[in-house]
Amino acid sequence: MNLATQYDNFAEDFSQNQSIGENSNDLNRADFYMYIDFLKPGMRVLDAACGDGTDLLHYVSLGVGAYGIDASAEMIKIAQAKVANVPLIVGTFENMPYEDNYFDAVLSKYALMTSGDMEPAFKEIHRVLKPGGTMLYLVTHPFRHYFEKKNPQADYFKQEIVDSHILSGSVTVQEPSHTMNDFLSNFLFQNFDVQTYRERWDPAAEQIDGRKYPGYFILKAVKR
């Protein structure tokens, strides 16, 4: 699965629809912003998988030195038109072209789970963070991916590519399913101090069989 090509195909639709109606990303965005009160003017902050630059605009308004990286060249084009004087590049979690100990914070919303293997992504985030720097991310909850397999015999532990219908069905993204162990791994606990974990329902996601289950979780951790 080529994630860059996937988002290139619907970058405009995603950008235009993400804040429309009751099934928008506005709720999860506001929830995520509750945990960035540690950001201070002058901090160097990376938005990993910055998308169309909507979150970058908010971070810039806080006075931080913002950077953005995204796998989609089309998303980066939209972000470049939206956010001025922010270094933006096309790249992935697994191979970020930044120096060691470079950022005070790495923030990422609804993106890390697109990596089939979490550990290389976490290692790169750890590498580019300064000691004492903060990793804050929001990802699709593994329970949601499990239900989105839409198979009564689905195996929670088997990684599969699932279709996630979001934003009132206007966009369909393909993502590899994960277990909680993929995120709450030994590497995380050995190299970070976890400060926050929160699960939330998300109306922006398709609701399977009328069930109520977490759509995403937020995790905040500090590099040792």
User: For this structure, what is the CATH homologous superfamily?
Assistant: Vaccinia Virus protein VP39
Can you tell me the overall shape?
A: globular
Number of helices: 8
Mean pLDDT: 93
Detail the poorly predicted runs.
none
How far is the first residue's CA from the last residue's CA? Answer: 34 Å
What is the CATH domain class? Alpha Beta
Name the strands of the widest sheet in spatial order.
3-2-1-4-5-9-8
The count of DSSP E runs of length 2 or more, i.e. the number of strands, is 9
Helical fraction: 25-40%
**Strand-and-helix sequence, N→C?**
HHEHEHEEHEHEEHHEE
- Total number of distinct structural domains: 1
Give a structural overview.
The chain is an alpha/beta fold. The protein has one domain (3-223): Rossmann fold (3-Layer(aba) Sandwich), CATH 3.40.50. It contains eight helices and nine strands. Strand 4, helix 5 (118-128) and strand 5 form a beta-alpha-beta unit. The chain is globular and about 50 Å long. The protein starts with a helix and ends with a strand. The mean pLDDT is 93.
